[in-house]
Write a structure and sequence with these properties.
Blueprint: H1 17-47, H2 58-69, H3 72-85, E1 92-96, E2 112-116, H4 123-133, E3 137-140, E4 154-160, H5 169-179, E5 180-191, H6 199-214, H7 224-229, E6 235-242, E7 250-257
Helix pairs in contact: 1-2, 1-3
């Protein structure tokens, strides 16, 4: 498995001038998002609307828009890593939380792609990207804790910046193991918690409540690498790197493999 990771770039990611501009725009949009959530909460208090009011989907709508418009600099920064990670896809490929479709351009046209995306407001962005690329997709509204797939039926499962936001991470990993074929692979690129005791970890933990609202449930300080190592995969191989994004710069990229049939 280690030789599958040999071609991942080892150098730290550098932030270019264009990336800095994009990060500035990201910070502004994030601040506007915080304001939007504050206004939503003020409306709850003032109008005493029930949860099913028009405001109840504000966070999901905002997150869908941010996913579709604010990720260009990040995608450029991790493009080489993704190219290596997705270099050998075949058969049935299930992507958990595909968002607005930033990974679709890496996929061959001869795979059977299934997407499980719980946020319905992202679906139009994803479908538009698939149409642009000429890809046939099977998009479903579901959750990572209960994947709509048969046992031992999927060759590869993909997750990029998703495990941070699933409500039940251990259950999600067990679902991944359930639906993977023996010897199947789980490809992941995820942001993770900064080391304990660092200023960044303190920031991640402090900002978590508002980050979860803006980020559709995202936990900036989740220890995803440790969870993967203890989930029950036969092998888990990954690299750590720093991405040019605020708060969630510590990230991992790698492959977890289910035990092959004896």
């Amino acid at each position: 498995m280690l030789n599958e990771l040999e071609h991942f770039p080892n150098h730290p990611l550098k932030t270019s001038t264009s990336s800095l501009g994009a990060l500035t725009r990201f910070a502004l949009r994030f601040a506007l998002g915080v304001l939007a959530v504050r206004l939503r909460n003020d409306c709850y208090m003032t109008l005493k609307q029930p949860i099913k009011s028009p405001f109840s989907n504000c966070g999901k709508r905002l997150f869908a828009w941010m996913m579709a418009t604010c990720s260009t600099a990040y995608e450029e920064a991790v493009a080489e890593r993704k190219q290596a990670l997705f270099s050998n896809l075949h058969g049935n490929v299930l992507e958990i939380g595909p968002g607005s479709g930033p990974n679709l351009s890496y996929y061959p046209h001869d795979i059977h792609w299934i997407g499980i995306e719980p946020n319905p407001f992202i679906h139009p962005y994803l479908q538009k990207e698939a149409e642009r690329l000429g890809l046939s997709i099977d998009l479903r509204t579901g959750t990572a804790e209960r994947l709509e797939a048969e046992d031992n039926s999927i060759d590869t499962i993909v997750s990029t910046l998703v495990l941070c936001s699933v409500p039940d991470l251990p259950r999600t990993l067990q679902e991944i193991l359930r639906v993977l074929k023996p010897g199947g692979r789980f490809l992941f690129l995820e942001h993770v918690a900064a080391p304990q005791g660092t200023w960044l970890r303190k920031i991640q933990s402090g900002i978590r409540p508002i980050w979860q609202v803006i980020g559709d449930g995202c936990h900036p300080d989740r220890e995803t690498g440790s969870a993967l190592e203890t989930a029950g995969f036969e092998t888990v191989d990954y690299q750590q790197f720093r991405a040019p994004v605020p708060v969630v710069s510590p990230q991992i990229v790698g492959i977890a493999t289910k035990k092959a049939a004896s």
